[in-house]
Amino acid sequence: MTSASQAAYQALRDYLNSLLSPTHPDQPLAEVPAALRPGLEAFMRGKTEYQDEAGRRMIYAYDLAAWASGLIHGAGLAAPLPLATLNVAELQAATLRKAA
Question: For the whole model, what pTM was predicted?
């Protein structure tokens, strides 16, 4: 694995693990890293969402945790996600946003 691939893998793991935190808040769908958004949208079919005051689609924290847990401990991604397609900075920023 190249150093870039390793960095992308670690950023992805850190982001998904941050979603498992019991203090993780509900999150706008638009703040989910772009490469992961289609998978989350598929997971959310038939589940309850809401809109915040700004009209953004919001995902409940427990749904984010269930989705992340499935990716980490379950079946994984529905389709391969080449590490080279991940935006490491976007994943890191999303992880830091959750930690703040």
Answer: 0.83
